[in-house]
């Protein structure tokens, strides 16, 4: 079996680190990573618990294929209850720490309680100890990483930590590993900081040696890698442009949320696109993009490494930002750019560096800034409220200064750190918050891509593109083309994508593989690695079980079917241009059919027969 069969339970209140066996019955039901940790969380905490109290738990978890030779087998997840949404949160990250954790011999680390003072976990194979982190508290992610490498004198040490934004209580702070990879959404880093847990440093030298059928696994993974190599998206588009390959595409189809989703096309999209990142700057002849980069075991290499023009106003007197770091992905470029009306590529890159440096989600941040800009232009927010900032759409100065304040929780940055839902409620206009269940929207307007509206509304962690990416079908034609403006059949499409995604996340693989792979490519890899007879059908059922488990958690936490909705702007205000001109999202046509296909009653609650079928 590809599981190590061991979890580490860390009681921060008592300072103990105790190994215990993995519940293998749960592993066969939920596979790993997202599914398995969600099962542990559901069983071990009260879903109504305050997310920032000691009663919440914080779980770092790998999948059975994490750390193996499977392409993209470097993923790990953080699972907890979200302080931003009150829902179950699972935030997935790449890089190298997931594989390092697996190579150290652990499937999962469960943190419970709260330390009396700042600590970090040092994990070297079977050696686990909590060490003082008072000297690290108040440091950025980058400074913390440097300090721990200097202290332990091991360049192979892999580190995940929180920055100052999490310490300051920003509700969408993430956990950053390997300097610029992030478990970035839903405030998982805020939970980590609330426990006085600054960092997790891991060194593993044991390797992953529990493969059920090593020869069969090599054959299955090599065949799957060839599928990735033969696919234009995973062999050319993503390595060349990263997810930024989508900027001009989504803008062209009229689904680019712009200026707090008032519009569906951004006139400046080409200036902040993947193509623009390749173009030489006029000032120094160098492009924004330095190179692409890959996570552990990845044959796609979609990561971006970028630089900023040294003469740009954001870094002109800040040489610490003149080096290369993690560059813009599509979601960040959209949220920081199109949604705020800013088309300054260097300004967006600078803010993205700050998000990496101090660990806060660029999607939620950008969308919150966009909401603040609309409030400002309405005259509801004033310079007195913002500390002198003119929060106008298109202002690169307002965007970058807002990021500088949010990264440390200073001044108006403290309010921006609440997220757009709480910000807009405070200033009397909750309708201007473009969120579902309190989490900000990603970069696809559901008036122009109907299926994504249903996917957003029903997502178990709030608005999210990575819980059911129907853009693959509705825009890219993967695995087959469906009309983005049609609602018929979208309930089944969304359910299929949601279930498959839950299975892929739980395996320890990257969701980007599914631009080329189907479950038919993934099942043979898991079957060769793990006991249990893994087929496409079994994986789909596991995904469905995970989705319903998450739904049960949210219902117990107090959410209802009424939370499966979209902002009125998207249901009432028609798109003003493009192919979807005159259209709103027709959620009311899709949601009842979705509930029926899910085996839920009209209020969105799983029926007893559904529970019995899935073994819940």
Structural class: alpha+beta
Global mean pLDDT: 97
CATH hierarchy, class of the largest domain: Alpha Beta
Supply Rg.
22 Å
Range of strand content? 5-15%
The unreliable regions are none
Describe the largest sheet. Answer: 6 strands, mixed
Domain tally: 3
Please count the beta strands (DSSP E, at least 2 residues each).
Answer: 17
Q: Please give the CATH architecture of the largest domain.
A: 4-Layer Sandwich
Number of helices in the DSSP assignment = 25
Anisotropy-based shape: globular
Which percent range fits the helix content? 25-40%
Within the largest sheet, what's the order of strands?
A: 2-1-6-3-4-5
* Name of the CATH homologous superfamily of the largest domain: Aldehyde ferredoxin oxidoreductase, N-terminal domain
**First and last CA, distance:** 24 Å
Describe this structure as you would to a colleague.
- The chain is of the alpha+beta class and 616 residues long.
- It folds into three domains: 6-203, Aldehyde Ferredoxin Oxidoreductase,  A, domain 1; 243-433, Aldehyde Ferredoxin Oxidoreductase Protein, subunit A, domain 2, CATH 1.10.569.10; 445-614, Orthogonal Bundle (Aldehyde Ferredoxin Oxidoreductase Protein, subunit A, domain 3).
- It is built from 25 helices and 17 strands.
- The strands form four sheets. The chain has a six-stranded mixed beta sheet, sandwiched between helices.
- Strand 7 (119-124) and strand 8 (127-132) form a beta hairpin.
- Helix 11 runs parallel beside helix 13, helix 13 (362-377) packs parallel to helix 17 (420-426) and helix 20 crosses helix 24 (587-598).
- The longest helix has 22 residues, at 536-557.
- The protein starts with 5 loop residues before the first strand and ends with a helix.
- The mean pLDDT is 97.
């Amino acid at each position: 079996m590809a599981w190590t069969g061991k979890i580490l339970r860390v009681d921060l209140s008592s300072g103990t680190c105790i190994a215990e066996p993995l519940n293998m019955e749960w592993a066969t039901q939920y596979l790993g990573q997202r599914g398995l940790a969600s099962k542990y969380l559901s069983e071990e905490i009260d879903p109504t618990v305050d997310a920032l109290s000691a009663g919440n738990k914080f779980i770092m978890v790998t999948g059975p294929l994490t750390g193996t030779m499977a392409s993209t087998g470097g993923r790990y997840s953080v699972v907890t209850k979200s302080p931003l949404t009150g829902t179950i949160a699972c935030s997935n990250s790449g890089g190298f720490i997931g594989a390092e954790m697996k190579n150290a011999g652990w499937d999962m680390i469960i943190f419970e309680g709260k330390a009396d003072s700042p600590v970090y976990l040092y994990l070297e194979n079977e050696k686990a100890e909590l060490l003082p982190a008072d000297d690290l508290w108040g440091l950025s992610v980058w400074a913390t990483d440097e300090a721990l490498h200097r202290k332990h004198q091991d360049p192979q040490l892999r580190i995940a930590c929180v920055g100052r934004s999490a310490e300051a209580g920003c509700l969408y702070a993430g956990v950053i590993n390997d300097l610029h990879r992030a478990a970035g959404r839903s405030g998982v880093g805020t939970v980590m900081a609330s426990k006085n847990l600054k960092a997790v440093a891991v060194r593993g030298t044991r390797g992953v040696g529990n493969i059920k059928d090593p020869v069969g696994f090599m054959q299955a993974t090599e065949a799957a890698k060839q599928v990735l190599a033969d696919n234009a998206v995973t062999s050319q588009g993503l390595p060349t442009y990263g997810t930024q390959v989508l900027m001009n595409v989504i803008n062209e189809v009229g689904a680019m949320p712009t200026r707090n989703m008032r519009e569906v096309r951004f006139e400046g999209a080409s200036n902040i696109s993947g193509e623009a990142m390749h173009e030489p700057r006029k000032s120094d002849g160098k492009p924004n993009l330095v190179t692409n980069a890959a996570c552990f075991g990845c044959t796609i290499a979609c990561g971006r490494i970028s630089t900023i023009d040294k003469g740009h106003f954001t870094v002109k007197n800040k040489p610490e930002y003149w080096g290369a770091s993690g560059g813009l992905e599509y979601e960040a470029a959209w949220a920081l750019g199109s949604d705020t009306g800013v088309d300054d590529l260097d300004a967006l890159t600078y803010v993205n560096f700050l998000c990496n440096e101090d660990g806060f989600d660029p999607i939620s941040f950008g969308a919150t800034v966009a909401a603040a800009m609309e409030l400002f232009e309405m005259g509801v927010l004033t310079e007195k409220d913002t500390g002198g900032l003119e929060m106008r759409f298109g202002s690169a100065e307002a965007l970058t200064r807002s990021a500088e304040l949010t990264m440390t929780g200073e001044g108006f940055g403290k309010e921006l750190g609440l997220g757009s839902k709480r910000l807009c409620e405070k200033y009397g206009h909750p309708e201007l918050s473009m969120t579902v269940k309190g989490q900000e929207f990603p970069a696809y307007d559901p008036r122009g891509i109907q299926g994504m509206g249903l996917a957003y509304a029903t997502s178990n962690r709030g608005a999210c593109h990575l819980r059911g990416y129907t853009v693959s079908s509705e825009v890219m034609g993967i695995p087959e083309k469906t009309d983005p403006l049609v609602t018929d059949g979208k309930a089944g499409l969304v359910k299929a994508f949601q279930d498959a995604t839950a299975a892929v996340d739980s395996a320890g693989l990257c969701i980007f593989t599914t631009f080329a792979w189907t479950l038919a490519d993934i099942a043979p890899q898991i079957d060769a690695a793990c006991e249990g007879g893994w087929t496409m059908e079994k994986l789909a059922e596991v995904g469905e079980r995970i989705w319903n488990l998450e739904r049960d958690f949210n219902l117990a936490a107090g959410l209802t079917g009424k939370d499966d909705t979209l902002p009125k702007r998207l249901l009432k205000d028609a798109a003003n241009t493009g192919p979807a001109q005159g259209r709103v999202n027709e959620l009311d046509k899709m949601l009842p059919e979705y509930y029926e296909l899910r085996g839920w009653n009209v209020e969105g609650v799983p029926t007893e027969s559904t529970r019995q079928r899935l073994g819940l």
